[in-house]
Amino acid sequence: MKKTTLLAGTAKGLIVFEEGAGGWHIRDVHFVGLPANYVYVHPFSGAWWVSLAHEHWGQKLHCSSDQGRSWREVAPPHYPQGAEIRPGRPASLKKIWAIHHAGPENEGALWVGTEPGGLFYKGPRDAHFHLNTALWEHPSRCDAQQWFGTGRSLPFLHSIVVDPRDSRHIYIAVSCAGVFESRDGGESWLPRNEGLIAAYLPNPHVEIGHDPHRLLACEARPEVLWQQNHCGIFRSVNGGASWQDVSEPEGIARYGFALAIDPANPDRAWVIPAISDELRIAPGMALCVCRTEDGGKFWQVLRNGLPQAHCFDIVFRHALASDGERLAFGSTTGNLFFSPDAGDHWHCLHGHLARVDCVSFG
Q: What is the pLDDT of residue 2?
């Protein structure tokens, strides 16, 4: 069923777009003036989850079960007493980076990824979120040479993947640390970074210390994983046991943050490139989206309808969403774009939003 709602989490609120006979229009604005840094639409319950990053009050979490007509505040994850980032440095919630369901048989249960790198779980009847101690106490996390901050001072867990065939099979991605896999519902974790490159480290082939920017799995073929990484675009066809660099050797499909993949086709993916970590602008100051149809062997550059001169738009890791053939992304300069045909043509839905941090079809 085609989704007719598009949610954009911006630095000044949650903007809800609705598609009608005349195209897309703004239906509602929630949490006006507040940074809606993460938005999640639960695929089974339909609930909307929104994380707000108050500068004074810290992270707040809100849920709506009626598409925004009413909201209830939910206690956010809280690091327990005694949890330490490093010896002598107590852990506290800095930011919510990811929210994900825990499987169709666990409706109402959630996984939440946070900064400083903790993974939390809340069961359908739990009053509070609980820190996943197996990951928090993983020997690598306690080593500042393996888990560390990059653009932020602390590591952060930004991607969660739950296998649709087995809800106890979970992947997470941490910047900086890498990809970890659990096959027992989070009771134990193993790194899955073979083949990744950490060009910024003395040993670029370390087991742990990588910087995935976004991690996704194909719904139809969950053993096929994709990641947009600090050091390129990588793909795994064996459940993360090994990764292959599918970046363009000489082209622009390499560095970036955002990633989307086709839920039915494991060979099809989209990225939005930037020049480099040092120069975070669109290549040639011309905004484009790159698409592959063959697992990364060839990347096509898509520009139709996107600004091609003096463009300063950059797209964050959660600000690109796919709904089959339809795509949407929002930029740091407040532009929201939509494509009805897999990126061949783009239309600007709004050009005067605040910075867009996340986009989701509802």
A: 80
Give the three-state DSSP class for 135.
helix
Fill in the DSSP letter of residue 177.
Answer: B
Given a cut of 80, whether residue 1 has pLDDT beyond it is: no
Query: Measured between alpha carbons, how far is 9 from 320 in angstroms, rounded to an integer?
Result: 12
| pLDDT 10s digits, 156-184 | 999 999 999 999 999 999 999 999 999 99
Distance of alpha carbon 339 from alpha carbon 222, whole angstroms? 25
Q: Side chain identity at 218, as an amino acid letter? A: C
- Which amino acid is residue 342, in one-letter code? A
Largest CA distance in the chain: 59
Q: What are phi and psi of 27, to 5 degrees?
A: -95, -45
Task: Give the integer Cα–Cα distance in Å for 27 and 19.
Answer: 9
DSSP H or E segment with residue 100: strand 95-101
Cα 295-232-194 angle, rounded to 5 deg = 80
22-63, pLDDT tens digit by residue?
Answer: 899 999 999 999 999 999 999 999 999 999 999 889 999 999
Q: Checking DSSP bridges between strand 269-273 and strand 289-292, what pairing results, if any?
A: antiparallel
